Amino acid sequence: MSTRVRPAVEAARRRLREAALRRPRVRRVLELADRELRRALDPDVTVYDGAYFGLGRNPVDRAFLSGYERYDRDTSNANAAAYLAWRTFPAATALDVGCATGFVVEALRELGVDAAGVDISQYAIDHAAQGARGHVRRGDLREGLPWRDRSVDLVTALETLEHLEPAEVPGAVAEIARVADGWVLCTIPSFGPNRNGPGGWYQVKVRDERVGYYESLGPGYEGPIPYGDLYRDGRGEPVEGHLTVASFGWWEQRFADAGLLRCDATERRLHPELARLGLTKFWNLYVFRQPWVDEPPRDVRPARVVADVLERFGLRDRTADPEDEAAVTRALAEAPPPA
């Protein structure tokens, strides 16, 4: 963009954003215009469209392609995510970044949290879960979110930030920090040591023939993994659209650069629960806070209410994989004192 044009563009963008924040009708008109322009300019776009969310796909044959065999509240682990967020944080408001069709938003709202969601996929927004409709909208972390500074108690970004290119991550994390007034809960595929729980690995994140090389670099290597070495799906694209694969330390530093502090004690409390829910192998957990709030206290919700939610969300009878329990027990025994 020309340096002469940039100030005018930035001023226009700022005025439109302010108008959208003040007037919901203006925001809706802008969203519709953005949708139609994108379709006109790139009618063949297929990233995060219906096929990604399982439309037209045989549920038993993923055929080495990225995306979901099927996408529903159970297979997406939305009930577990919403339960953990609700139980852990005394949050009245929440924003789920990368909300897809809004299953986490729907579940949080059922639990009494004033939750909203944002996703880059227009298909996902158009096909939002019934309980999320009217509370999710299209948006892009790279372009700025239509939420005011410090406007939500809790921001969640579950399996989302790895879909950005490494150069885009700092701005996206800064945008999350801008709208969060309390805490941030993330799950991000990571590798290397983790001071608050089981570490990550390279398998199915790095091309098979390159795993040995990266393991040889030792625990000090932080990444990100170069694009050419990322694991590929059946089409030869980075699997699941994951573009940034890095260490726990690398990701923590990106959040620290945005002014957020890692919640060591909270993460350590959550890891046994992740194991019980069968999520240890799938979720690499991060919890952060703004400097002006404390780590969330224990027992945010009454035990009787917690038991009811576990039953209602079908989570009460889940049992941990012994291997996951052992990994969590070992990691917590070896963990250094919380920062």
Task: Please name the defining characteristics of this protein.
alpha/beta, Rossmann fold, 339 residues, two-stranded parallel sheet, 2 domains
Structure in words:
The structure is a single chain. The protein starts with 5 loop residues before the first helix and ends in a 5-residue tail after the last helix. Helix 1 (6-22) crosses helix 2 and helix 9 runs antiparallel to helix 11 (322-334). It has a seven-stranded mixed β-sheet with strand order 3-2-1-4-5-9-8, sandwiched between helices. Strands 6-7 form a two-stranded parallel ribbon. The protein has 339 residues and is of the alpha/beta class. The chain has helices at 6-22, 24-41, 78-88, 103-110, 122-126, 169-179, 208-216, 248-257, 264-276, 303-312, 322-334, and strands at residues 93-97, 114-119, 136-138, 152-158, 180-187, 190-191, 246-247, 261-262, 285-289. Strand 6, helix 7 (208-216) and strand 7 form a beta-alpha-beta unit.
Strand proportion, as a percent range, falls in 5-15%
Number of strands: 9
- Multimeric organization: single chain
The CATH architecture of the largest domain can be named as: 3-Layer(aba) Sandwich
**What is the mean pLDDT?**
87
The sequence of SSEs as H and E is HHHEHEHEEHEEHEHEHEHH
Structural class: alpha/beta
Question: Can you identify the CATH superfamily of the largest domain?
Answer: Vaccinia Virus protein VP39
| Individual helix count | 11
- At CATH level 3, the topology of the largest domain is Rossmann fold
Shape: globular
Tell me the helix content. Answer: 25-40%
Give the strand line-up of the largest sheet. 3-2-1-4-5-9-8
Q: What is the name of the CATH class of the largest domain? A: Alpha Beta
